[in-house]
Amino acid sequence: MPIKLAANAYGKNAVNLSRVLRHAGHHEFRQVSVSVQLTGDFEAAHTVGDNALILPTDTQKNTVYALAREYFTGPIEEFGLVLARHFVARNPQVSKARIEIVEHLYQRMSFDGQAHPHAFVGGGSEKRRAAVELRADGTTTVWAGLKGLLLLKTADSGFVGYPKDEYTVLPETTDRILATECEAEWEYTAADLDFETQYQQIRTNLLRTFAGHQSLSVQHTLYAIGEEILKSNDAVKEVSLVMPNKHHIPFNLEPFGQTNTNEVFVATDAPFGYITGTVVRG
Question: Which residue range is the domain that position 217 belongs to?
């Protein structure tokens, strides 16, 4: 039986980059982690050890830093496009470049209504994401998203009407805490968009829908978020969401002569429900 190399790719992951943009009167601080993946004519490297077409991953890392000074001045999607175009244009053996960027969010500190010119506070667990794929024929796909976004609401959430068997002890409820650590990714229909405006609008759609939705389950709210994003943003082709159910379980206060009127809970890290879904047009 003949043996041959199938799908393969290589690149440099976790290129951690910080960038200071020095504006007149204030600074802007950006911190990202960039991953590069190249697909192409690399069979000889695998089969006979010929590295003639292998761009070193150290060179890929250096390219990220070298291009950052001039080109990492706006949304991470735009920087991803610059990097992908660089690797494809300079390396004819590359049939596809994929760039993934995760941004750690910082904002300027503010005191007495005045933003400090060069002191920053981190954005907690939330991170912004982007991915760009560019093929040698020019086909370009851009994804954006976020992860680590902690969401919680203390009303307008319930869970009833589910199947029950001999192992079911979960009581039905029409009034519970709904909490999740949301991860979202959406695919854009074009690569020449105002990515910053699009991102902020989509994030606002997500937050507003979560807050205002009368949730009958996590699945119910996940779909509502995806539906609203697609309805409100023509530039989005589809949206995928991961919404683990971070359980807050009412604590039994009866042994202490108290009634728990949905005010005291046990916050649990594990186990947790894990809900995913992709919402598309048509």
Answer: 149-280
Q: Identify the band that residue 207 occupies on the pLDDT scale cut at 50, 70 and 90.
A: very high
Q: Does 29 share its domain with 134?
A: yes
% of the chain with per-residue pLDDT over 90: 99
The three-point CA angle 264-176-125 to 5° equals 80
Please indicate, yes or no, whether residues 73 and 101 belong to a single structural domain of this protein.
Answer: yes
Is there a contact between 239 and 185 (Cβ–Cβ < 8 Å)?
Answer: yes
Same domain, 133 and 207: no
Tell me if 1 is assigned to some domain: no
pLDDT band at 1 (very low <50, low <70, confident <90, very high): confident
CATH code for the domain in which residue 206 is found? 3.10.270.10
In the numeric block, the tokens 């699009």 are attached to: 198
In a domain, 9, yes or no: no
Residue 33 to residues 63, 265, 271: CA-CA distances in angstroms?
Answer: 14, 37, 29
**Which amino acid, one-letter code, is at 157?**
S
pLDDT tens for residues 47-84? 999 999 999 999 999 999 999 999 999 999 999 999 99
Q: Can you say whether the dihedral through the CA atoms of 252, 154, 157, 181 is positive or negative? A: negative
- The residues annotated with a catalytic role in the active site are 12, 57, 247
**pLDDT per residue over 132-190, tens digit each?**
999 999 999 999 999 999 999 999 999 999 999 999 999 999 999 999 999 999 999 99
In the chain, the number of structural domains is 2
- Is 228 contained in some domain? yes
3-state helix, strand, coil in the chain (%, to 5): 25, 40, 35
| Per-residue tokens: 121 | 């506070």
Measured distance between the N- and C-terminal CA atoms of the chain, rounded to whole angstroms: 44
